[in-house]
Amino acid sequence: MKKRVFSGIRPTGRIHLGNYLGAVQNYVAMQDEYDCIYCVVDIHALTTLEDTHLLKDNVREQMIDLLAAGLDPDKCILFVQSHVPEVTELFTLLGMATPLSWLLRVPTFKEKAKQQPHNVNYGLVGYPVLMTADIVLYKAEAVPVGEDQLPHLELAREIVRRFNDQFGPTFPEPKGKLTSFPMVVGLDGRDKMSKSLNNHIELAATPEETMKKVMSAVTDPARRLRSDPGHPEVCNIYKLQKHFSPAIVDEIASECQSASRGCVDCKKQLGAAINEYLAPLRARRAEIAADQAYIDKVIKEGAEKARAIARVTMVEVKQKMGLL
Ligand code: ADP
Question: Coil, strand, or helix at residue 199?
Answer without folding.
Answer: coil
